[in-house]
Amino acid sequence: MISKSYLRSWLYDWEQTNGFELGFTVHDQLLDYLWEQTKIHGKLEDTVCGEEIYQLNYGHGPVEMLSELFSDLFGNPDRTIQSLVESMVLDEPVEGAD
């Protein structure tokens, strides 16, 4: 199954790709949230199509594997996770933001 270190690796890559430098508190909150989603999804995948998880686990690195997993979960993981980050980071709208 997916380990938390795999998820941490994916999240760091996502942050760098999308230009976010999260503080430790927000990073940990986001990691915990995504970890819970991964565990829920993992349990479903394990019972419904465990072979697919095995192929994802051993056929790709952690970043590619989790990108696929979160695409399944969120549809557009970049947009969804960015919204989560913004809700955790911002108490009020950024000046000039739509």
Structure overview:
The protein has 98 residues and is mostly helical. The protein has one domain. Helix content is 79%, strand content 0%. It is built from four helices and no strands. α1 crosses α3. The longest helix has 36 residues. The C terminus is likely disordered.
What is the structure about, briefly put?
Helix content is 79%, strand content 0%. By secondary structure, the protein is mainly α.
Task: Give the helix tally.
Answer: 4
Largest sheet: none
| Number of structurally distinct domains | 1
Oligomeric grouping of the chains = single chain
Beta-strand portion reads under 5%
Low-confidence sequence ranges: 43-51, 91-98
What is the averaged pLDDT score? Answer: 65
Describe the structure using short key phrases.
98 residues, mainly alpha, disordered C terminus
What is the topological layout?
Blueprint: H1 4-18, H2 24-59, H3 62-74, H4 77-89
